[in-house]
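User: I'm preparing a small set of examples for a lab meeting where we compare how different chains pack in three dimensions. I only have the primary sequence for this one, and I'd like the structure in token form so I can line it up with the others. Please keep the answer compact; I'll paste it straight into my notes.
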Amino acid sequence: MNLAYPYQYDPRGRTAETDDNTHLRDLIEQVLFTAPGERVMLPDFGCGVAQLVFAPNAFELASATQVLIQSALQRWLGALIVVQNVNVEATDATLSVTVTFRSVQDSQWQVQTFQQGAGGAA
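Assistant: Understood. Below is the structure token output for the 122-residue chain.
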């Protein structure tokens, strides 16, 4: 088992745990929404997608964001997942990132969507 993200307690008052698939989703979410420089001991960690919520909506920005996300996931989680596809959509003040990936330990592909609104993660 793995620690739940964000850190929390289970009903018994112990540190909450999660299964492997949920843990991978949590790790991807951390890479996506952590801005570089936010973590003191890992200043290069993350890709800062949350900053793009207020950026102008353009095809070039979406393409660049997809490359940014895919390279960040490969750099930080490449030993745990294989990323097949990243899709970024900006609608009004909400940024949606859909990641198709699989764990290196199994062959089952997963599709997870992460959203960031102007007020924080949705």
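A couple of notes for your slides: The first strand starts at residue 2 and ends at 3. Helices lie at 20-33, 59-77.

User: Perfect, thanks.
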